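hey so i finally got around to running the thing on that chain from the lab meeting. sorry it took forever, my laptop kept dying and i had to restart like 3 times. anyway pasting the input first so we r on the same page abt which one it is
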Amino acid sequence: MKARIALVVLSCVLSLATGWVLSRGGTAESKSPGRKVLIGFSMDTLKEERWQHDRDYLVAKARELGADVLVQAANSDDTRQIADVQALLSRKVDVLIIAPHNGAAMAKAVDMAHEAGVPVISYDRLITGSDPDLYISHDAVKVGAEQARFITAKVKPGRPMRIIRIFGAKTDNNAHLLKRGQDEVLAPCLEKGSVRIVHEDWAENWKPENAKKIVNAAITRFGGGFDAVIAANDGTAGGAIQALTEEGLAGKVIVTGQDAELSACQRVARGAQAMTIYKSISALAGRTAQTAVAMATGRPVIAGASVDNGKIQVPAVLLDVVTVTKDNIEETVVKDGFHKREEVFGR
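ok and heres what got predicted. didnt touch it at all, straight out
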């Protein structure tokens, strides 16, 4: 049986930084000589442009490192995702990467993988109530804080800024981390009365149509009496902007987002969406592929942080994020090659 990853505290470097070494023995010896590393990648969905980028970057980097990747997408269905994991494990993958639809539901998948001696990387979304071997993501709390910070910087004296909040899916731990980051920034503004939350709700499965319903409900209740929408991601921002457009409010209400999807960057360029958060998917997917190959070949992996998932402190690698506006879009997503200038600006 393949050995589990061991977690070791680096007490010798704690004066400099907190870190962990994840080491995995037995895999290199148990693989047949000359067999490529085989990585399983269980994804929630491929419907959104962002997740297509994740798949493509991760597969390309793994191939560059001499590994193969088997990809399964569950179409936001927990039962199907469990079946996908079972299928990947039956193919004798060396490492399992899971981007969960429901972080709690995928605890079962972690147990299944560990029973098979396969380590698990929780990708971008945290798997809760279990013991995944590593969590790799961007700092979701910081993303939420940056969204709220962008909004509160626009507060004007005289009256409170009226805000609608659209949270992500309740089943996704990232949605709760985003909310935490937003709450930390909004709390002092709410206390002193410079900001007022007029409406808020969770967008089931992050669907734009659910975000649109939330904004429609706010419009029905308040008319145009609000100044900003803190939308958790670009998909929900798109749904919000659709509702605003129907009421002639698009571009007049500040709308946030995250993921720097092409459609969102186009909205930012024309002024319908005020900002998005660029999380380098190439960096995230590339780092994950490198880590998976290291695990499979018995090399140590260093994690510089940890995240509480309700059961353990999961060793974590958290990447930084960048706020993108109309003013810096060319110096960020375009310069980085994430989108082409003519795609963003249409010329």
